[in-house]
Amino acid sequence: MPVLIAAGAKDLFMNIEKTMELVHGISQAEFYLAPEGGHVHQWEYPEPYDSVVVGFLMKHTN
């Protein structure tokens, strides 16, 4: 099943190494990194996040 993993590059609660373990551990994972985002990057930068999520959903809609 396709999975989208979204993370903020400046997240102080979840380090990028653990996030990448998750990405590499799920065979069909797609990854989005908000370059300036923190733990709540979806609120800090909603437009790029929303665009990625909508694109992911459109790509995987039957």
Distance between the termini: 13 Å
Strand order of the largest sheet: 1-2
Query: Per the principal axes of the C-alpha atoms, what is the gross shape?
Result: flat
Q: Per DSSP, what share of the residues sits in E-state strands of 2 or more residues?
A: 15-25%
Number of strands: 2
Keywords for this entry:
about 60 residues, alpha+beta, two-stranded parallel sheet, 3 helices, flat
Folded structure, characterized:
The chain is an alpha+beta fold and 62 residues long. The protein is built from three helices and two strands. The chain has helices spanning 16-25, 41-44, 46-59; strands at residues 3-8, 29-34. It is flat, with a radius of gyration of 12 Å. The model has no long low-confidence stretch (mean pLDDT 96).
Summed up, what is this model?
The chain is 45% helix and 19% strand. It is α+β, with helices and mostly antiparallel strands and 62 residues long.
Protein topology:
Blueprint: E1 3-8, H1 16-25, E2 29-34, H2 41-44, H3 46-59
Parallel strand pairs: 1-2
